[in-house]
Amino acid sequence: EVKIEVVIPEKERSKEEMSPNGKTSPLIYKVNGTARHYHLEEHPIASNPYHNPKDVVEASVCHIKDLENGQMREVDLGCGKALLIKESGEFHAVGHKCPHYGAPLVKGVLSKGRVRCPWHGACFNIGTGDIEDFPGLDSLPRFQVKIEKEKVYIRASKQALQTQRRTKMMAKCISLSNYNLSSTNVLIIGAGAAGLVCAETLRQEGFSDRIVMCTMDRHLPYDRPKLSKSMDSHPEQIALRPKEFFCTYDIEVLTEMQVAAVDVKSKIAVFKDGFKMEYNKLLIATGNTPKTLSCKGKEMENVFNIRTPEDANCVVKLATSKNVVIVGASFLGMEVAAYLAERAHSVSLVELEHVPFKKFFGERVGRAVMKMFENNRVKFYMQTEVSELREQEGKLKEVVLKSGKVLRADVCVVGVGAVPATGFLKQSGINIDSKGFIVVNKMMQTNIPGVFAAGDAVTFPLALRNNKKVNVPHWQMAHMHGRIAALNMLAHGTEISTVPYLWTAMFGKSIRYAGHGEGFDDVVIQGDLDELKFVAFYTKSDEVVAVASMNYDPIVSKVAEVLAAGRTIRKRDVDAVVFLSFRTGDMSWLTGKGS
């Protein structure tokens, strides 16, 4: 029999002796040679997961021979499900849903001790449940497996089965009240994915000194991709963590606070209002700033760059049953157009190129996407620009194009790209390239000791492309940047090696993408573009450097695993063997088991 029960990995057990007052005895952690104390906070699983017998469920699910090596099965326990896995002759069991957006992991990719989400590429260790690649913040609950009489039983906590997520154990700050308000050990400028993951990783690794995050936003960290994919979401609906989380783990967040300058010699950040904060370690994760139009009327009412939940909410309200003009067929522009198509009276999209996404997905995929939009009442005005925005009584009335066309417009959304938000660093001595990006190494370190940078505002060496310095403004990559930066603040010497992974959602369909296709010279497409069921391999010379798909899961996650393992896919593989293996369901070549 195989029995599964919730268990805490050894590294996450608190085995310290209890002090006389009943609290866990503090451990010692050294930061820059200084001894620091911290208390471990175990959440949400207690040391004894079965202290309440009523919270335990046990059920028979299958025979031991029902699973072959390399197979996964979603099993139902009546009050919840688990993912049963067999690899290298051993059974493992973890939560069955990705904690990010709830994707069924049984449809994902199992490879060398981890399972990768089929939707957005997050990876989880099958032995511990720990998250190893992103997006998302939480790990999977892990269940212990036992074999008895060749039948499989699962014994698990009902709570773990229902939540399907596990927040890793974190340290808490000691004696926070003793700190000088103008001094912190770690200062994080920016409260996006990179900044939050950095803060959480520090706490997970036992760091117990003060952590301060500051942001120009009025909200705690939130799921920024939803601003264009789910525009009517309110801030509390897309918050990455509740307010209580930051209080529990002593992560301070200063909202509506803008850093105006950084003095790296004195280790002081100067805020716009004159406030100064001294730091020991600094993470710069300021992201980017959207470009604006340069034409007449750009400052008038009802012209938006989508930067906040309030911006997105306001656009939806103003656009309902009205005329919308979107400038720029960027990811943001296209997602906004798709979201508003059913709500607005009309949606017009203005773009300088002749095909959307041409530089990123290639012309053929771009045309297929464009056709999907046209079938959903979106009107394109290509190879032209905006020359003027006209108003009536102070509000937008018309958008005039350089082609001479005049479009009726009650609201205009601008999505023409962005620039790194690094202007405040120009006199800092931190290395900034000609485009304004912060230059970092594989450990997310800048040229200044103790100063790290992460997210959309950096260029870093991408292992996938022979350590070429690249900028990858993806949500998943920002998470990983934050984690690597935190580990190296603690002198772990960890280098980044993740494979870029992104997705876009339009009209209920998703395009998934992995790799880095910049400079691709050919696109090999298998499937049917007209039916929007395809996989596109982007090649440079003879090598596949990226892959995109629609309605072809989990192929992008499969290829991401190949690239993550350091294997090379040649163009000839795509043309001959690869697609045949997809049709038959044989993916052995991807996991290294086939020739």
UniProtKB/TrEMBL annotation:
Domain Rieske: 59-154
Alphabetized UniProt keyword annotations: 2Fe-2S, Apoptosis, Electron transport, FAD, Flavoprotein, Iron, Iron-sulfur, Metal-binding, Mitochondrion, Oxidoreductase, Transport
Entry superkingdom: Eukaryota
The keyword Signal belongs to this UniProt entry's keyword annotation: no
InterPro entries: FAD-oxidoreductase/Apoptosis, FAD/NAD-bd_sf, FAD/NAD-binding_dom, FAD/NAD-linked_Rdtase_dimer_sf, Reductase_C, Rieske_2Fe-2S, Rieske_2Fe-2S_sf
BP GO annotations: execution phase of apoptosis
GO molecular function: 2 iron, 2 sulfur cluster binding; metal ion binding; oxidoreductase activity, acting on NAD(P)H
One Gene Ontology CC term in the entry: mitochondrion
Matching SUPFAM superfamilies: FAD/NAD(P)-binding domain (SSF51905), FAD/NAD-linked reductases, dimerisation (C-terminal) domain (SSF55424), ISP domain (SSF50022)
Subcellular location field: Mitochondrion
Keyword Calcium on entry: no
Principal localisation: mitochondrion
Function statement: Induces apoptosis through a caspase dependent pathway. Reduces mitochondrial membrane potential.
Family: Belongs to the FAD-dependent oxidoreductase family.
Protein name in UniProt: Apoptosis-inducing factor 3
Natural source organism: Dicaeum eximium
Gene encoding the protein: Aifm3
